[in-house]
Fold these 2 entries.
Entry 1:
Amino acid sequence: MSAIEIAAAVSAGERSASEVVDAHLELIAQRDPELHAYNLVTAESARAEAAAIDARVSTGEVVGPLAGVPLAVKDNMCTKGVPTTCSSKILEGWRPPYDATVVTRLREAGAVSVGKTNLDEFAMGSSTEHSAFGPTRNPHDLSKVPGGSSGGSAASVAAGFTPLGIGSDTGGSIRQPAAFCGVVGMKPTYGVVSRYGLIAFASSLDQIGPFAADVADAAALFDVIAGHDPLDSTSIRDFTPSASAMLDEGVDGLRIGVVKELAGGPGGVPGLAADVLARTAEAVEVLATAGALVDEVSVPSSTLGLSAYYLVAPAEASSNLARYDGVRYGLRVDGPTTPEMTTATRTAGFGTEVKRRIMLGTYALSAGYYDAFYGKALKVRTMMLSDFARVYEDFDVLVAPTTPTTAFELGARTQDPLTMYVNDVCTIPSNLTGHPAISVPFGVGDDGMPVGVQVLAPALHDAQTFRVAAVLEAAS
Amino acid sequence: MSELAPAATPETPVESALPEGWELIVGLEVHVELDTATKLFCGCVNRFGVDPNTNVCPTCLGLPGSLPVMNERAVEMAMILGRALGCQVNRSVMARKNYFYPDMPKDFQTTQYDQPTNSEGELKLADGFVVRIERAHIEEDTGKSVHVGGGGRINEAVYSLVDYNRAGVPLIEIVSKPDIRTIEHARNYVEELRAIVVATGVSDARMEEGSIRVDANVSVRRFGSSELRTRCEIKNINSLRSLGRAIEHEALRQIDLWTTGSGPQQQTRHWDEDAGRTTPGRSKEDVEDYRYFQEPDLVPLDPTSATIAAIDAAMPPLPSARRSALRAATGAGIDAARLLVERGQDGLAMAAVAAGADGAKTVTRLVNDLAVNDWSKVEAESFAALVRMESNGELSASQAKQVLGDLVERGGDPAAHADVRGFEAMDTTELESLLDQLIGENPEEWSRYCGGDEGDRKKMQGFFTGQIMKATRGQADGKVVAQLLAKRSSS
């Protein structure tokens, strides 16, 4: 059953939320030991919430658009009283005294969180292998990674543990695992979903978004979590989500651009696999057949995104992660002086990839290097914004692959950070520009693993991405 | 700070406690805690002196996932203070200043860096000397650490406790150019800045509570040169007196180092009030690289010209203008004017004079007898009436003082208080007959008054006044008695 069907059935009293939640918890109990999508399953509170929803339904109360729908929450979003770890030893045992805004909104909509999902430590990674609590596996093939960093939420939806999941996307951390796991994943316009309670990786890039098995469910979830929040200063005012309402509008007459640099052309991004490019080309055909006006378009700066991203994101991370100093919460490893205590705590508490990025970012911001690194990356960002703005004068949306390849083997890329970073090459531009983008499953690769196709849109045109994705979904 | 400070010209008289031939160069960084209802980035109450760690929330504790929301009133106050200092108000952004310190919850301070809210202003001291203001920017305060054992130093302490109540309290940091050349001007600068801060209502600016804090950048050079030599930043200055002592000590220390060797190292030094000296803190070699960058969790502050115009229009009269007005209306001296404006009693003085009170008497009464915290019950009308009664001789100086005490406590009509106290105006004729009687009883004293030298005359005036006061139980006005004596001796 889809999320929309569950909510309808629960609201109508045809199925109880308790029954729905129990069934999903049972599946998790059976299969999660091999997948490890969850850091923590909150079965007890999930059952209690489900029972409360059933009680409300029985008194005739309207519970909300996601009544009784089981939900997976990435373990970098604060949940009051429930351990929130970022898959890091440094936060082990910490229980936030407050809920993230998205968590509150979802509870008010009737969704039932069944637990906290695994991620690359502090959302830094593309395979969920950089988790202090062990990797998550791809439900389609246990030898493959689910992608990352939101690999746990993607795997939870792909395995049918929950119809819905939420993740965060800083450089592709929703879309890439969605593509690898064969589910829908969407990164909203920066500022459309509140970041309050999302534990920051790179504040100017982080954005929370939906995972679902189909486009309609993803749109329903998006419509619940989107909207202004006074607790987040970068939250956009007066945004009315309308993804579900626009789903059936089709693409007739829509101007769709295929980004040359992300389509395997010369001078573009290297290393894009033939099967992925073939599925992308087929997707473009589908859209043309459905009446879209399709053309190729060049966005030259899109090839610079990767380098700019790996300066901006670590720079912000080096500052955001400074607070894990052993003084106030989380891990503390004692030392003879306060600075030695902090050093010992951070040495023991952070994993290799987190340390690598903190060092990269610290270096990029340092006196004498700022202009050559961080400053230049900001210029690339500005350049990309104007490049995309120019392109969107002629196009309504753009199409590109989500990932260069299908899901790779566990352990295949952990030894070489650069081959891991290249995973994000197609998804990063939307984070640097703050634009919305969706990944929708479209066929499989030569290895039989899912392929995702990405639809990009200009800022605030989030609904367009769902609308185009719905057409691709219907044809795949 | 690379800009050269102008050399003192021969026209500029420089009074200095420094040895002959040396000139003092001082720039001040003043932190003012804004008197907002809530903290800079969260809804916690901005209050001094509550139990440790009771005024905190996820945001001011910097908990994972928390986000700042800018306090708009703090921004407004910053702009008000900036305009009062003649600054230009800019489009500004917040920045992160990154360094590890246990009392800083995020291990970065949210402040402003290359795009401050206010820049390029000036502060004119009471004597007309102008100190240029480089910037006045918005930032958050840190918490407070208490180091137990090890002499109170962080790295030797047995353990440390941190109180985060102050974390996130809004501050304005006002940075002057290195224009100050004397200790007196350094003090005057802080006094005048404090007066402006109070007059604009942005802070109560109590130095003893730490709501205004001063760091001094001190260097010295050979008189007549325009170079800027190595400076030291002096922290932990807790009073105006300390400010003067710390600058003097530091300047002498530096001169000694220049005279005997290659001069001081650039470093931060702490003023030790008890020992009367500065002690070394961080030196340049381990000065941290703060890795400033724009705060991504906050949006730029971009006030419209209409907002700035509205701030200008609503600007209350500033201390310098108030002093001028007070002096013009009452004839008050510069020190009295400064004092009354600082106390906020200039309005009362002007209203009393407008209601017919004598200017000089008004100022004297206020300066001497209204040094109290709460004088809200003293109304201008009744205060003016009191001064008039004193001028008319209806009340003596000491009686006027007592009635003013009644006004402070209870307010109301001074004549009524005088009645209650049994103060009756002494009729001059009554005094004259009393004086006649005294002259008759003390002929020797009277002849010494009339024929003696100046000293005798003074002494005998005192004698007769004292006798009259005794006979009237203090109700006579000493000045009137003096006038009567003078009149009698010349008739």
Entry 2:
Amino acid sequence: MKNNRREFIKNLGLTGIGLSIGIDGFSKNVALKKLTPATLALEINPFIIIENTGKITLVNSRPDMGQGSTQAVPSLLAEELEVSLDQVSIIQSDGRSKYGSQQSGGSSSVRGLWMPLRQAGAAAKEMLIKAAAEKWGVNAADCYAEAGKIFLKGSQKSVTYGEVADLASTYQVPKNPKLKDPKDFKIIGKYNKRLDVPDRVSGKAIYGIDAEIPGMVFAKVVHSPRIHDTIASIDDAAARKVVGVLDVIKIERAMPHTKVDAVAVIAQNQWAALKGAKALNVNWKSENGKYLNQNTSEYFEAAYAAAKKPGIRAEEKGDFDAHFESASTKLEAVYETPFLAHAAIESENATVHVKDDGTVEVWAPIQGPDGALSQVAQYLGVPEEKVKINVTLLGGSFGRKAYMDFLNEACDISRKIKKPVKVLWTKEDDISQGPYRPAMLSRMQGVLENGQAKAFHHQAIGESIAGQVFNGLRPNTADDWLSGELSQENHQYNFEVNKVSYSRVKTSIPVVWWRSVYASNFGWGQECFIDEMAHEAKKDPLEFRLELLKNASRFTKVLNLLAEKSDYKTPLPAGKAKGIAVFRSFDSISAACVFVSKTDSGIKIDKVVSVIDCGMFVNPDNVKAQTEGNIIMGIQAATKGGITFENNQCVQSNYHDYQVLRNSETPKMEIHIVENYERPGGVGEPGLPPIAPALGNAIFNLTGKRERKLPLGV
Amino acid sequence: MPVFNLNINNKVYKITAEADMPLVWAIRDLANLKGTKFGCGMAQCGACTVHLDGQPIRSCQMPLSAISKKAKITTIEGIAEPTLHAVQKAWIEEQVPQCGYCQSGQIMSAVALLKTNKNPNDEEILAAMEGNLCRCGTYQRINQAIKNASKML
């Protein structure tokens, strides 16, 4: 999910520059407080709990959907606190405001928490050192912290953090604790095995689907095939005869922007609920007035019509249209990307207990416990203090589980049946109900003058996520989520004339963020068109880019490293080709070189070399793992069929007709990380956007045919 | 309702369920072994892979009525020897999982492969693992981990 930087900082309360911790509780005079008398646990700040027994607990505030936040977030605390992760327990935050923004999304965890959590760790360490010094009657400057203990320099003396936590709790929290020089990092930037992996290979890790609450019943929700229909009648006679079915009730699916009818089959076990749902006969009443471009053919027709008209200007340097009209060498092309489902293997699910005493408890695989807390409180009309959110691990998400319609369904059912209930969507619900990555067009225009790149225009065309999900886009306004990604400041190509515009095409097909959000759509148009311009200018696509990026040193470093590692300058034999692309998203720059070859059965992807500059990072192996994942998902997005709607309903229903990449389709992958001391950028998403265009450019180099519409026939 | 005595991981579970209940739900909800995951419900993803007498099967497609009385079922909880199977150790060493949701199924397919083929080549690995989807895209590490595990066995 896109996370606006200013909004993020506001949520964290980081508006005061000097008070850079800013997380509730940390700025209080005495921040340490007893958690429970039984354990004598002391909370140094909301993220660090040191018990007198010596037990140290760190809080991970960003749910883990596979991106590695269970390791990455506590590492920021541990580095400055001087503990190793195998010395501490890690717990997941519960959505309370004292933890600040807790949304995993927008590749924001490390880049957003980089300073606040390091400062939290450093402040706690200073207080513990001061307490040890006081205990020993020495200067704090003569003491140092290491591996959960304070040592007195030049002596054998040491105390554990637990032993001095009580005394430390009487001090004010330092507002400007000294941070370590990144060159002295022991954890950050180093290879460390993820300590959550053993549970993930032994069946012990707990995902949402594994929640088990005493007295819990199971629900299968039957959704409207055309999303927005109302219920004319329900014939539940056969469903109620299924052994184990307890009840059939009408409920609602509350999406962020609309509420639609649904039916819940409640049963003693999941199988009975599924079987009951199959036996259920719901008579759905068409709601023709609610379908808007709800067939993909209508949507694309409207989008291609919009591509013939000017959009709303988002930014413009120089007068693009004047240059384009008078130019002797100009290019124009429209690129297309389809709707896509997230299709995590763990489908949407939530377990909710709306209790008799007015409290509510939630167990769910969701990307943001803070968002879940406020959503559940608002939806059920209860105060937030009465809601408890337990975040489980997420069995994949890619943006989907930050859209919590499934959680509202569980709330609605539990309040109606007055029991704890687990709602589990099937893969068919997941694929055919949305929300999806919106399909988009890129209308590209370019001007060359004397063989030099001169002017560039990217017109983005399609549904606005913010516009649909949050009703947050005023008419005749460019969606700044996408115009930011397309801006010249972001792509850094030094065109003398540069323009970004946007044409909104509305649809009632539900849309939402999908891994790398709009970058996954627009990298395709931007980077293929740059290649088109390079070929028109009779220049090598790498050289063409390097010329345009000569003032953007981080971009050129990424591209030069890519050229080196992919042996770019060495020609390939006949029947083989390569293509490149580069895209910046979420404060990181990623470039890819895709190698393809002609085979008897078509085009084969042989190898992908990817380079990422994400600034400073926590674990190089996790950066590589995320980039591998981005390559695999990027190839799927480029080569497999997207989501289509006919007769106002989704055509695809499961992995047989909405295909994701399989093991045998995995190319050889090489990942290279640019090492520097730049501010951290995102890791979970930036590797994806260059994949499709690098592949498209490779195919052009192989076949001479320019593909502009995804999916590609590979 | 019928009663089934299921031998799961060498322990007999008395399961009272409808005969058409797929094994995955008996394992997860009635035997309360949550390591086996439900994915697609149509044998497309392999998340529910368990062993039936040593053979990898998709437990979402196997009704209880089709399981013979003598059958031995093995789930991810039952492969440890004694703490971790070589395949699990290799998975940790290669840092295979991202979200990890599919990995019980991946590991069960890999363990079954290495039981019958101690030293599989690339094609044999792909053939054995083709039915297990990983949306996080950990395939390259999975294949490397299988090769590493084959050397440990």
